[in-house]
Amino acid sequence: MAGGSTEGAALEYTPTWIVALVCTIIVAISLLVERFLHFIGKYFIKKNQASLFQALQKIKEELMLLGFISLLLTVLQDSISKICIPKHVMNHWLPCNPDKAVKSESHLADSSFFLPGARRLLAAAASDGVGYCEAKGKAPLLSLKALHDLHIFIFVLAVSHVVFSALTILFGGLKIQQWSYWEEAIQNKEYDPEEAMKEKLTHVKDDAFIRAHFSGAGKIALFSWLKAFFKQFYGSVSKLDYTTLRLGFIMNHCKGNPKFNFYNYMTRAFERDFKKVVGISWYLWLFVILFLMVNVAGWHAYFWISFIPLLILLAIGTKLEHIISQLAQEVAEKHIAVAGDVVVKPSDDLFWFRRPRLVLLLIHVLLFQNAFEIAIFFWMLIMYGFNSCIMGSVGFVIPRLIIGVIVQLLCSYSTLPIYAIVAQMGSSFNRAIFEDRIQVGILGWAEKAKNKGNKKGAVSNLKESPLHKKVEMTEIQVQEPPKDKGKSPEIEPAT
Predict the structure, then answer these.
(1) In this predicted model, what pLDDT tens digit does every residue of 13-48 receive, in sequence order?
(2) What is the C-alpha to C-alpha distance for residues 379 and 387, in angstroms, rounded to an integer?
(3) CB contact at 8 A, 26 and 246
(4) Which of 55, 270, 396, 461 satisfies CB 3.0 to 4.6 Å to 275 for a cystine?
(5) Of the candidates 466, 459, 471, which has an alpha carbon nearest to the alpha carbon of residue 431?
(6) How far apart (Å, rounded) are the C-alpha atoms in residues 25 and 14?
(7) How far apart are CA 275 and CA 467, in angstroms?
């Protein structure tokens, strides 16, 4: 053993300074990553970005899960490689045709650039498992080399999902940030009590918002859906849309506070949703297992799967745009003229199955599937090379990449921004309407009242709940002094 090749030397025959050096490098890299994440967390806390801090904690949880999976694969790799199954089972559902295996392996030695030494070491180590099963006339369930490749794939997938989700939210946030100028213009507009007391009559059909969304061919259902479909590709949310939806939200949920900062509320709710999007839920791991299973030679499964996030994205964008048209339609059909400005009526009935949060779930799924497509491409490229049989033909690979880029850009600059505002058009509002310090105060107040034996419904509905739970406005009203911005809003139970 001591006189064998260096690649095959066990730890007991490896120089101690090499072991110490490798451990030092690994520990140093791990500490740098940990300190970097810690610094980001402190920055979010300093900037009172509790939602982004929670999202960062979610990323840490995913990294911990990834580490556990890595540890599990490492510890059990010898046992898994010695699980033997009949040889004829190995001839079905193969990613590559057996007659192309020799060509693929020869190309792998030339084009793969990821840890070539590790591949030779694993191939040598795998011979033990293969020999163990060969002696029984069977084949190993999964060789050490295959386990190593699977190990790398899980790592690439997790990193790709976190990175692309963060980039999507970042670019979407930059787009939403442009709306702050609209909110600032509204907030700076002086309030004239005498002007407000004057009767103002608005003919609905002459209102700019109604004309933009419910006039001419837009009154026909088919053309209304077609218009919504194409509008998501350009100017998904206009200033007119923002001001009208903002007014509808304020008049239905906080009528007593016309100076309510809708933009701040919307961005807080958007940041809370980011915590959901960046995670990898259990059902997403089921998608991974399913996609890996259908990667059979000749099926071109990954090519067809790449259309799923695109179709979901287009469906979401069309639906969200059509909700704005429905809001205009409801006003136009119920009123000929209204006193004051046109006010839309938010409602859960506008959303699929009366569940506004379903849209976020679909966005989560499509972002993960798109990250899977991109991750599987780079994994195959690194591990096997571009011309390998598992990669597939160029005619199927290039369209997959193009679709992935389109989904990433369209979701960032169109779908996420329109979701951020239209998601607030439900019957109830998100608890992000309260700033983090106010939420803590409310929960503390509710807990104290509960401990004193107060069992009124208004208090019981204020106890801590899952993130997706919403608080009805009939139970709490927020009043912000319009002039003194330095003070916290007052919280009063509704009478």
Answers:
(1) 778 888 889 889 988 988 898 888 888 888 877 877
(2) 13
(3) no
(4) 55
(5) 471
(6) 17
(7) 10
442: its two tokens: 């409310």
pLDDT at 473: 42
* DSSP reduced 3-state for 89: helix
DSSP codes, 25-57: HHHHHHHHHHHHHHHHHHHHHHTT-HHHHHHHH
Residue 489 pLDDT > 80: no
Higher per-residue pLDDT: 449 or 110: 449
Q: Say how far apart CA 466 and CA 468 lie, in whole Å.
A: 6
State yes or no: pLDDT of 149 exceeds 80. Answer: yes
d(C-alpha 52, C-alpha 136), whole Å = 55
Long-range contacts of 284-292 (CB under 8 A, 24+ apart): 284/364, 284/365, 284/368, 287/365, 287/368, 287/369, 287/372, 288/157, 288/372, 291/372, 291/376
Own/partner contacts of 468-475, CB < 8 Å, gap of 24 or more, are 468/357, 469/431, 470/426, 470/428, 470/429, 470/430, 470/431, 471/428, 471/429, 471/431, 471/433, 472/428, 473/253, 473/254, 473/428, 473/429
- Read off the pLDDT of residues 49-58 as tens digits, 9 standing for 90 and up: 666 777 777 7
Instruction: Give the separation between CA 94 and CA 90, rounded to whole angstroms.
Output: 8
Contact 430, 439 (CB under 8 A): no
**323 vs 236: CA distance, rounded Å:** 12
Question: What pLDDT does residue 339 have?
Answer: 66
Supply the pLDDT for residue 109. 46
Q: Residue 150: pLDDT above 60?
A: yes
Tell me the residue type at 71.
L
Contact 384, 108 (CB under 8 A): yes
- pLDDT band of residue 115 (cuts 50, 70, 90) is very low
